[in-house]
Amino acid sequence: MFSFFKKKPVAPEAPAAPVVAPAPVAAPAPDLPDLLPIEEPAEKKQSWMARLKAGLSKTSNNLSVLFVGAKIDDDLYDELEAALLMADAGVDATTYLLDALKRKVKEDKLLDAAAVKAALKQLLIELLTPLQRPFELGRHTPTVMMISGVNGAGKTTTIGKLAKHMQTHGQSVLLAAGDTFRAAAREQLMVWGQRNNITVISQASGDPAAVSFDAVQSGKAKGMDVVMIDTAGRLPTQLHLMEELKKVQRVLGKGMDGAPHETLLVIDGNTGQNALAQVKAFDDALKLTGLVITKLDGTAKGGVLAAIARVRPVPVYFIGVGEKIEDLQPFVAAEFVEALLG
Ligand SMILES: Nc1nc2c(ncn2[C@@H]2O[C@H](COP(=O)(O)OP(=O)(O)OP(=O)(O)O)[C@@H](O)[C@H]2O)c(=O)[nH]1
Where is the signal peptide (predicted)? Predict the structure, then answer.
């Protein structure tokens, strides 16, 4: 029903001479498979649902338990309000959901807890569905993606997972080690690239904009499908570092018209309401095209997606519930709500 990436990719152009290629060049797949539609095998889908459920259990535990044998009264609404706030859904989304739920219970004359829970599920799906957007590849050669986020949000890990998923779908990928701040981060990406036969553009010079520009040039010359730019972690309050990020974005546009085609923010699901502040700040600075929310496993703050949907509805392309490659998957509102309240 849902493929990892949407759209048929364009065939790659003939590879030209490499510009900077410290790691071996990934050979472009001679015959790119049609990516649409890809039926996920039932067992694979099931295992993702099981992982999603397990990952979100800390958030869902506080919510699901409310409906067990509950009476529909003010106590239930009070407890639901507290649970949503504790899940970091935020005041706006919590008020919205409670008001809508009370209205629905009245209009539809709902009498038992199971029906109220089903109504809440429906309202949550409606609230989160606008965040759901398939990640499209193949409109540009290469599709240039810039990955931003605060320190430790999971940027580099996400890049690795996405690159592997893309490779599996027959896409050629080139990475830029734009995190020139932490030498270890650059090396980590280089080693990872070598192991996975993915070229990583890197420079010792320490200028992220220059590395990013080189990467786009190289990606164009080689006819790569995707160029992903890693960036150093930074807080939105570090204004000079935010300016540096804007410069990287501008320079990418000089390297290729319309680039970056995707500007993603990776956020750590554990940060709850602070994640919302990050979305606002990075969106104001960079005009984000999408989010990746990692580490939803082991957090009780998964409600932050509701806050994002109400306050700054930037699409959520992928969510992560663990460290394995298959733990990063496209965000599907109905799956997410099923895992929370199923
Ligand atoms: N449990 C869990 N851990 C994750 C997930 N995604 C990433 N991590 C871990 O989070 C840690 C930080 O990830 P990195 O990818 O290094 O984060 P980063 O944003 O690149 O970090 P900086 O370069 O320091 O800014 C690593 O230990 C990852 O394995 C996830 O979905 N779940």
Answer: none
